[in-house]
């Protein structure tokens, strides 16, 4: 894609006028018009300013630089590499800290990067090939061999998932085939769409939060999302706590745990 077309497409997609973008980027509407028509060639700093002013994801900022003939600015590190070792440690800390509630980390495509032990209650009964690192959590949620048969408000939840993956056209088309043409029910919280999921601990009522690394300057890090499940009601909180205790198993007996008979 050439630069004028790339810039115009991204500006239009974000519904930003030439004048507004020019003001944000510290230039004139006339100069921006020349850039979008190909009459002027942008400098590297101008491309970066325009990308920042449009609040483009880091991946798209690199693409805009490449379209203008410049090398990418933002690195794309491997999550397994030494540069992101502190990130892996932070992710592990956050996932453990969220227990006994389920939490997971996914990449841009929705592939599972990491999860805590509490996710096992969510995924119980799903086909093994749909569960585990590297598998797609959106496919797990909507596939007939995944969570779909256990989701009591499948129509609402499926539409919530599909709305999040508009940037993944092929995957969205696949998953849309699994979604029934049903009218959403009234079973909402009023402020969020809950996940109502049947489980071995009873029906769980969960809402989700999504967290990102806000100050990331690495493409890999910027595209990671931590999704945490939180209980909507006390019954769900108790069920998750009980599942965590059961999964931990009996506490090993140490010198401080001796019974009177042992003493």
UniProtKB/TrEMBL annotation:
One of its GO terms (molecular function) is DNA binding. This is Helix-turn-helix domain-containing protein. It comes from the Bacteria. PANTHER family: BLL4672 PROTEIN-RELATED, BLL5781 PROTEIN. Residues 7-61 form the HTH cro/C1-type domain. Transmembrane segments: none annotated. It holds the Pfam family HTH_3.
């Amino acid at each position: 894609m050439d630069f004028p077309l790339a810039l115009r497409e991204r500006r239009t997609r974000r519904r930003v006028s030439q004048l507004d973008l020019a003001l944000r980027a510290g230039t004139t509407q006339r100069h921006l018009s020349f850039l979008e028509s190909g009459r002027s060639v942008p400098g590297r700093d101008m491309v970066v300013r325009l990308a920042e002013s449009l609040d483009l994801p880091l991946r798209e900022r690199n693409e805009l630089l490449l379209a203008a003939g410049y090398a990418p600015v933002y690195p794309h590190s491997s999550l397994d590499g030494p540069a992101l070792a502190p990130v892996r440690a932070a992710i592990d800390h956050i996932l453990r800290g969220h227990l006994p509630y389920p939490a997971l980390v996914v990449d841009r495509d929705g592939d599972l990067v990491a999860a805590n032990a509490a996710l096992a209650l969510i995924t119980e009964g799903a086909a093994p090939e749909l569960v585990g690192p590297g598998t797609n959590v959106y496919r797990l949620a909507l596939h007939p061999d995944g969570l779909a048969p256990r989701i009591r408000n499948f129509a609402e939840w499926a539409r919530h998932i599909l709305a999040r993956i508009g940037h993944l056209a092929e995957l969205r088309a696949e998953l849309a085939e699994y979604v029934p043409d049903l009218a959403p029910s009234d079973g909402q919280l009023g402020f969020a769409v809950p996940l109502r999921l049947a489980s071995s601990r009873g029906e769980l009522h969960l809402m989700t939060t999504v967290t990102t690394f806000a100050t990331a300057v690495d493409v890999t890090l910027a595209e990671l999302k931590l999704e945490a499940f939180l209980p909507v009601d006390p019954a769900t909180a108790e069920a998750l706590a009980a599942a965590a205790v059961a999964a931990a198993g009996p506490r090993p007996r140490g010198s401080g745990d001796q019974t009177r008979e042992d003493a």
